[in-house]
Amino acid sequence: MPPPENRPNFLIVMTDHQRMDTAQPDHPCITPNLTRMTNEGVNFTNVYCPTAHCCPARATFWSGLYPTRHGVWNNVDNDYAINRGPHEHIRLFSEDLRDAGYDLAYVGKWHVSALGTQSPSRYGWRELMHYEDGIQDNHIKWEKIREQADAPGDTEAAIQMPGYNPSVLYGVSDTIEKGDDRFTQRGIEELKNLAQQERPWALYIGLNGPHTPYRVPQRYLDMYNLEDIPLPPSYADEMTDKPEYYQRVRNQIFDQLGERGTKEAIRHFWAYCTLLDDMFGEILETLESTGQAENTVVLYCSDHGDYVGEHGLFHKQVPAFLGAYHVPAIMRWPAGIRNPGRNVDAFISLADFAPSFLDLAGVEVNRYFTGRSFVPFLRDESPDDWREQICTQCEGAEQHFTQRAVIARQWKYVYNGFGKDELYDLVNDPHEIRNLADDPDYDAIKRDLVGRMWRFAYLEQDSLGATQYLMVNTAPWGPKEGLKGEKGRALPHAVPRGKENQPDACDHTH
Q1: What is the C-alpha to C-alpha distance for residues 85 and 110, in angstroms, rounded to an integer?
Q2: pLDDT given at position 155
Q3: What digits encode the pLDDT tens for the residues 433-443?
Q4: Does residue 268 contact residue 306 with C-beta atoms inside 8 Å?
Q5: Sequence spans of domains, the chain
Q6: DSSP-derived 3-state class of residue 296
Q7: How much is the average pLDDT of 487-491?
């Protein structure tokens, strides 16, 4: 392990719901501080979450594992949770940093485990502020609905549905909602404190924006003219060739917005991202004033994206469109990044960050990761054996939907256990409008992607393929299709679930 004075510090800023394109220099969204980061560091342009949902995505970021292994599939704080947090044997990279002598400070959104069961302090962090979140009580929620059943609703809300509470998607607020300004200021104070000590440190600032509702101060909204906001190219897609659930969500919920309301929502989302960029700029300015910027790894990223009008949808979760899975990840480290100002378009997973941070800190661990270290890309090197696709794992949210997907350079395949499968040509149809899954001319391509899906399922010990129960055998080809080997070589041995922390598990990291 390098001596403490040579080990880098880590400053991690994670937003919630931010799609990748809004963090790019060529996007109309105004983010000068992120543009500066891309010029001074590495812009990972092909990063994906394992599931378009806060809790499983964040658990993957911290553990380096996919949901099949860490156990977090959906929202940990309500009664539909499959698990309240990672399995007891799962170790997060923060614990390794703590044991290696790092001082860890945390503020903001957690959402990896239900607070009160597994708080950040359980995983090595000093909690700078208490995050107001906990397990929701279904009985209390039902009683509130009963009490409000005869009361008039909020007629100003954008989304109105018979028998449901109205939903506010966007609006103007004189204050910064969800505590992000408080989290930012507390993180800034801590940066000054951390600069006074000699041991290496890690500071995590979890921001809630631009999660719905998109409420921002008027001054940010005024930066964007409604007439200049375009509808997404896929907005006109009626999705008749896609799962009925996708159509139902659009037709019943988001079509209420109309074209103008959709543009307003997009405008508010962009304004929210600009607000977050301002906060990030304050954080960077403080870091630089402490004199520690040179040897501090700064990461700006998000847990998942938001459709933001794609196919007429907002939010995230089950529809597997790229806008909800493709996330920003920009990293700066003046002391260590070679040839800064580069874009890296290799397939990166949120599972790669845990092993990468440990690699950067010189911390050797002896356990299995779904991901692998991307540190070679920081040195402007490209490993010959880097992955050629990203796989996803989804079991839905408050309604459970079994879904797996494979995203490759040209093709994307989605297995929907609840409806039609999907196949898109991402080169000729980047907005995922034409579903080719039922076209026999593409069977060979689809079969190859299904095989990749099952190979990943084997490596991650996904019970979806292992059960072989007749009533769930609905994929076009079964798991044997993925276990015939790849390009003439044997597949790596898969580490059994629950054995990730055993001493020899790291021999099978891929």
Answers
A1: 11
A2: 67
A3: 999 999 999 99
A4: no
A5: 4-134+159-378, 390-508
A6: strand
A7: 59
The answer to whether the beta carbons of residues 48 and 347 sit under 8 Å apart is yes
Out of 3.30.1120.10, 3.40.30.10, 1.25.40.10, 3.30.1020.10, the CATH code matching 390-508 is 3.30.1120.10
Average pLDDT over residues 233-248: 97
Find out whether 457 and 449 touch, Cβ atoms under 8 Å. Answer: no
Q: How many CB atoms sit inside 10 A of residue 381's CB?
A: 9
Element (H, E) at 43: strand 42-48
Cβ neighbours of 227 (radius 10 Å): 6
* pLDDT at residue number 508: 45
Return phi, psi of residue 214, to 5°: -85, 80
Q: What is d(CA 229, CA 241) in angstroms, rounded to the nearest whole number?
A: 28
Tokens of 211: 């999660």
Residue with the two structure tokens 């994307």 = 412
Classify residue 310 by its DSSP letter. Answer: G
Q: Output the CA angle 326-330-331, nearest 5 degrees.
A: 140
Identify the CATH assignment for 4-134+159-378 out of 1.10.1740.10, 2.60.130.10, 3.40.50.2300, 3.40.720.10.
3.40.720.10
Count of all residues that appear for the chain in the document: 510
pLDDT value at 489 more than 70: no
Bridging pattern class, strands 389-394 and 348-349:
unpaired
Angle, helices 180-194/258-289, rounded to nearest 10 degrees:
20
Dihedral sign for Cα atoms in the order 30, 33, 39, 45: negative
pLDDT reading at 139 higher than 90:
no
**Cα–Cα distance measured from residue 347 to residue 118, given in angstroms and rounded to the nearest whole number:** 31
CA–CA separation, 277 and 283 (whole Å): 10
The pLDDT score that the predictor gives to residue 137 is 75
Nearest 5°: the CA angle 160, 226, 280 is 90
Residue type, 27: H
Q: Answer yes or no: is pLDDT of 383 > 90.
A: yes
Could you read off the pLDDT of 110-123 as tens digits, one per residue? 988 877 668 898 99
Q: Assess whether pLDDT exceeds 60 at residue 1.
A: no
Q: What are the angstrom distances between the C-alpha of 279 and each of 30, 358, 431?
A: 13, 27, 31
Taking the CB of residue 235, how many other CB atoms lie within 10 A of it?
17
